[in-house]
Amino acid sequence: MQRIFRRCVVAAPRLRTAAPRLPFRYIHPSPIVRQEAQAAGEFKEDEKITKFRQLEERGFIHPNIVKNLVGNMKLETLTEVQQKTINQALDGKDIIAQAKTGTGKTLAFLLPILQNIIKIDPDLARANYSFKGPRTTADDIRALVISPTRELAEQIAQEARRAVRGTSIVVQTAVGGTQKARGLQSILREGCHLLVATPGRLKDIMTDNYSQIEMPDLSVLVLDEADRLLDQGFWAEIQEIMQLLPAREEVDRQTLMFSATVPPDVVRVVRRTLKPGFNFVQCVPADEEPTHKRIPQKVINVNGFENMLPTLAELIQRGIDASSEPTGRPFKAIVYFNSTAEVTLADEILNNLSSPGAEGSEHPSRRRHPWKRISILPIHSKLTQSQRTRAAETFKRSKSAILLSSDVTARGMDFPDVTHVIQMGVPQDRESYIHRIGRTGRAGKEGEGWLILPPAEIRESRTRLRGLPIKQDGSFGSATADLVREDVELAPEVGGIVEMLRKAAEGVPYRAKAAVYSAMLGTHSYVSDKEGFMAALNRLATKGWGMGEPPTLSAGIVGRLGLSRVPGVRVGGREDGEKFGKDAFERTGLFQRDSFQRRDRERGFERKDPFQRAGFRERRPFERNGSRGGFRPRYSNKLDGGKNFRDGDTRRGWTKRNKDSPF
């Protein structure tokens, strides 16, 4: 009662009358044409808007929003998906849009959302510098955007905040990997109009009786990367979230879905979620060649695990050398690993490199790195959200950089000008390979895909990657060199790379190597020749990492993996004061979920920020799940059955039947 009274005193009354909407198909380039079109009811396709400034001139988007787009974000021309969706979304239509990442789809749904928020309360269009108290509360959430990953959610929120600069619209996030209590306090203290969330954290706060997040006036729901939401098993959580939202019979709600592909699973969700008469916007030509068939792809077969990092270093050096040529592009690569432990170890080794002849300098600042002008950045699920965001933003802004990544960046993230995608080992499935490759060759620019394979993975790769246009490349000396025998003389360029990597690996802590050793047992559980695999793994530890002997494994892990009688397995549990166990196993099918799967991503199995002081833990008053003497009503929502589903409202001229539409 006290909270209701406070809101009535502080908050200004909301203007809820909707302005009449012009019934036309395209946005017209002048008021005269608009009047003529309104009178005639007929419109020409060549009269659609193509510039952001025209959105302001024709009265569709508020001038303060357009000012940010054109002045601060330096945007001028609308993309195809923006031209096809903004007007329909402003009209309140439910939309399913098929568009690739990097085509401007984020602004395609953000602009209608922001304009509708301003339409409901025009005072939000300007900044509020009053000190009379907050005018916005947690109940003012008008739009909800659900994204499959933290990175994509933060990217959407950042773009929204840039678009609303100078207004009173409040954008908040609710994502895994961040402190739940701090996020809730921010929403309750500052209020919220637009909430961008991941499914796990959103469900968590909406089912928490103490969170005070209800969204009674929600008018827009956006499902971004809908195909990925389904791929990663989020549909059950999304259904639960929708049951907690106000029923459509009580509060009319617009639903916008964006997806790079429209498989049968997405079609079924569309029929259950969108209102009859929704529009299908297709921005991917049916006959367009997929990225994974268009991008040149090569595989490098190496002698053993110990050859993989030297081959990667040789490939990177080739790319850097090619970038210095007159027609060369700046070298910018994403290197994918199959576990977070491998990302961490590669980061330690590659950032610790010293050029031959510079090894005498013990202080890191005095070392001469062979790629001194190129940043090497790690990103994976065990970093804090701030660390991951910082790495992603740095890589985006860099002209030349190397991003060492697990699968957290394989989909949804838009990194410009990536020239190389390098995959260290066979990915867990064909889809992961294809989505990784899709990070390069974007916006009409060229790119390359590379796969580095050890002998233990060649047979499995033929099954998982069958039919893909991958050609073998045998030109890398580091791949075929014998790095095990001491009496073999290496070629000078290969020997320099190997020696440089060995010296860098010697400075890496035991625990980092042991974690990779343990994780690789999980990622290679499909290998039938256990004895041969353990011998290869031990060669990696001793010859590749410079360890005196391979790491030990706990008796429990050895028993569960069936390695008790395999030669070469060292049982010890703890050694050299280090401890490792289940947390090193990153892949599905062993002891825990993938580092990029839902539970790991949403529940925050990340390491502490190294900049945080030890011993301090913030209280989390909102995390209890009991009841506290009061009943908090919940909304129910009956999903549309899709019985009256049709292609669109052709009477108003919004859509024509698309022969390629799956609906």
TrEMBL record:
Q: What is this enzyme's EC?
A: 3.6.4.13
Catalytic activity as recorded in UniProt: ATP + H2O = ADP + phosphate + H(+)
Q: Which SMART domains match?
A: DEXDc, HELICc
CDD domains from the UniProt entry: SF2_C_DEAD
Q: What is this protein called?
A: ATP-dependent RNA helicase
The region called Disordered is annotated at 599-663
Q: Which PROSITE patterns match?
A: DEAD_ATP_HELICASE (PS00039), HELICASE_ATP_BIND_1 (PS51192), HELICASE_CTER (PS51194)
> Keywords assigned by UniProt?
ATP-binding, Helicase, Hydrolase, Nucleotide-binding, RNA-binding
Domain (Helicase C-terminal): residue spans on this chain:
314-489
What family is this?
Belongs to the DEAD box helicase family.
User: Signal peptide span per the entry?
Assistant: none
Q: What is the lineage of its organism?
A: Eukaryota, Fungi, Dikarya, Ascomycota, Pezizomycotina
